[in-house]
Every structure is written in C-alpha cells, then in structure tokens.
Amino acid sequence: MLTLGVDLAAATKKTAAAVVEWNNGTARLAHLALDVDDDEIVRLFGAADLAGIDCPVGWPDAFLPFIAGHLAGDPHPVLDHDGIEGRRLLAYRDTDRFVTARTGLIPLSVSADRLAHPAMRCAVIQAKIAVEHGPQARDGRGRLAEVYPAASLKSWGLLARGYKGRGGAETQRLGDLLRGLRQAAPWLDLAGHGEQLAGSDDMFDAVIASLTARAVALGATIRPDAAHARAARTEGWIHLPTGGLSALTGGPA
C-alpha cells in the first residue's frame, strides 16, 4: 500500500508531500518533497492507494447562503447569523467543532482565517483530481481524506503544539517531536530524510498526513455518525486516529 500525505499551502512554496510505502509490518518513507505544485500532487494521488490532505476540503454549509443573501440584498439569510454564535456557524464547520470537543484543539477557520487561501487551492486540486481520477467524497469514503496533523499527533500521544516556525524554540520542539515519533514508530524507515524532517515542519506534517491516511485506509479513524454524516458530505470531515501508531502496521500491505 502507498499512502500520500500533503501539507497544503496557498501556493507551491511550502507545500510538502510525503509518500509512505507499507509492506509486511514495516513502512518506508518512499518520497519526500517540498515546494510541490498542483500537477505533482495530482500525479502522486494517482499512484497512491489513499491520500491525506492537511487542508479543509469544504466550507461551512451556512456560509454560501449567507454570502448569496448579502450579494442579492436579501436580509433574511444574513440576519439568520446575527451575533457571535451565528458567526461561529459561518466560520467553523461541523467537523471543526467535533475536533475541538474531542481534542481541545481549535482548527483554523476555512472562511475567516488565512486558511481560506489554501482551501481555495484545495478546491481546485480536488477538481483536477476529479477530472483525472474521478470525484472524491469529502467525508473520506473515497481515496482522499482530510487530516489534521496536530490532532493526529495528540491522538497518538505526541507533542501537538509549538513546533511550527523558524525560531530556536520551535526548531528544538520539532527535533524533539521527530525523536518521539521515531521512538513510538521504530518500524518507520525515514530513508535518510531525518535531517530534512528536523528542519521543516511542512515536510514533517506531510509525513504525519501520510501516516493518518494509513489509519483511514485501515478504518482506524473516527467516521461521521448519523448526526454528522450529512454535513461531512458537503463540508468535509477531519479524520482522527482511534488507535496507537503501532496499529498502522497491521491490516493490508
């Protein structure tokens, strides 16, 4: 099995991709790259069994009627979201609220934070994948799943905060986190990429996204239940691992 992980930025710069090859209880980092463009992501997707992308794959269901009402001068769908609680429904998806309740982490808003720019690119990439490989369900039932590396790390008992950035403290935390990952997953062969991963939180997150994609493939993530299924189909669904890292070596190779 090949899993692809993508840490998506708004542009090619700082977009990272990692492919992990799984075979007989072991895993090897078969490909790692930074500054990856759309065509390369679509190509890697075509070769992978399952891809995990660190970016929202949709927007809150309430957001479009709000914008359409404002554009048309119709006050009703706009006034439906008066006040802070109404605006939260515009800013955060059902899956974002679920992740916060489950992990205590607050995903960035796809409609109100800088994450909106990567999400626009992600929508274009999804369209390109649909043209080349067929449409992919936003809830992860196909070959594409939305992931959140910080939440995956926390689910696996690893450091989930403070490692992003170029400062000395962040670099130290990233190095500590990489050592923690190696200890928790001795079966993972980084294939000589350890120095690159210690120097780039983007590439590190791409690896975590690829590991999470493996959890999705094995059915070892939380899937949307009946209460969340409808929103997950349109807004997307962040897949949270349910087992430890060691569970990733089981199942199909």
Strand order of the largest sheet: 5-4-1-2-3-6
Number of helices: 11
Per DSSP E runs of 2 or more residues, the count of β-strands stands at 6
* Separation of the first and last Cα atoms: 5 Å
Percentage of residues in strands:
5-15%
- SSE order: EEEHEHHHHHEHHEHHH
Write down the Rg.
18 Å
**Strand-pairing-aware structural class:** alpha/beta
Overall geometric form: globular
Low-confidence stretches: none
How much helix, percentage-wise, in residues? Answer: 40-55%
| Main beta-sheet annotation | 6 strands, mixed
Average pLDDT score: 95
Features:
253 residues, alpha/beta, 6-stranded mixed sheet, globular
What does this entry look like structurally?
Helix content is 47%, strand content 13%. It has helices spanning 38-47, 63-72, 75-79, 83-91, 94-103, 116-133, 149-155, 168-184, 194-199, 201-217, 226-235; strands at residues 2-7, 16-23, 26-34, 50-54, 144-146, 188-189. Strands 5-4-1-2-3-6 form a 6-stranded mixed beta sheet. A hairpin with an 8-residue loop joins strand 1 and strand 2. Helix 1 packs across helix 6 and helix 7 crosses helix 10. It starts with a strand and ends in an 18-residue tail after the last helix.
What order do the helices and strands come in, and which of them pair?
Blueprint: E1 2-7, E2 16-23, E3 26-34, H1 38-47, E4 50-54, H2 63-72, H3 75-79, H4 83-91, H5 94-103, H6 116-133, E5 144-146, H7 149-155, H8 168-184, E6 188-189, H9 194-199, H10 201-217, H11 226-235
Parallel strand pairs: 1-4, 3-6, 4-5
Antiparallel strand pairs: 1-2, 2-3
